[in-house]
Amino acid sequence: MSNFISDLPKVELHLHIEGTLEPELVFALAKRNGITLNYLDESALQAAYQFDDLQSFLNVYYSGMQVLLTEQDFFDLTWAYLVRSHADKVRHVEIFFDPQAHLERGVPMAAVVEGIVRALEQARQQWGLTSRLIMSFLRHLSEDSAFETLGLAEPFRHHLSGVGLDSAEKGNPPTKFARVYAAALEQGYRLVAHAGEEGPASYIRDALDILGVERIDHGVAAITDPPLMARLAQERIPLTVCPLSNLKLKVINHMSELPIPQFLAAGVCVTINSDDPAYFGGYMNANYQALQEGLNLSDENILELALNSVEACWLSPEEKAHLAADIRDHGHAYGVVLPS
Length: 340
Ligand SMILES: Nc1ncnc2[nH]cnc12
Ligand SMILES: [Zn+2]
Prior knowledge:
Blueprint: H1 3-6, E1 10-16, H2 23-33, H3 42-47, H4 54-64, H5 71-87, E2 90-97, H6 99-103, H7 109-127, E3 130-138, H8 143-152, E4 162-166, H9 178-186, E5 190-195, H10 201-211, E6 215-218, H11 226-235, E7 239-241, H12 243-248, H13 260-266, E8 270-272, H14 277-280, H15 284-295, H16 299-312, H17 317-333
Parallel strand pairs: 1-2, 2-3, 3-4, 4-5, 5-6, 6-7, 7-8
Bound molecules: adenine (ADE) and zinc ion.
The site of zinc ion (ZN) has 6 residues, from strand 1.
């Protein structure tokens, strides 16, 4: 691991907290909650992490999270992620959670949100690691279910910065959630959505034009649509790309295929993130490192990607300026300087 990457201050904008559930914690929580698992041990579970596409991953992801039942479980899950992220020099994180995947198992919204928020608050007090929380709707479920979830979130509204859209993309276009997004906007939520991961570039357009999102999660399919690329660059609409995820889910066959150099050259505000790091082979440092090696990126490119994440995040302008200065100082210490 290069020191330039490992010591670089980072911002993570695309992270599913349920996707940070490491095999070790699956077994510990199963034991605590009296749940019998279908796997003999941690290595047998890890061996199941071979995916052909997004759906094959989602099957394992939804099955794994069944060990999460109590507020303490969600605290422990989130805290374990924050410890790893702090070690990776992550200074700010915007976290997705999937309430419907817990509500349908009888876990109350309060246990989920309060457990996550307690860990986020502890990280802020202990390390100054800041965060935002984004409630994601599962796009394979109905519009009615998304509306019901939005209603159940009302008592926790003050903990939630935005809403997102995830799960199986193909066949579940953004248009299905147009009315839910309009209602969320009305309630003051910021809006993001997964689009153009396995789905077409037209889903990215629809997420922008019909849902009104300000940021696209993944968005790699934009590379197939030059006018869309020009628009993303012109409007500086951020893309939260997840390199190891794209590789593991076979969105690309090799890291050298990820269009990061093209996005940077076009002036798109592209960012690097870990998505579901327990399943895809690494957290933030591992994603930056695999990307630099696979694409022969310069340290200047890496610095630009880190600064893009600051631009794209939801901190205040003052907090952003402070973090960007720390990132530029880190570059200076290594002789890596970008025009401001
Ligand atoms: N990469 C991903 N795409 C869609 N839904 C997800 N849920 C968790 N990870 C996801
Ligand atoms: Zn994701």
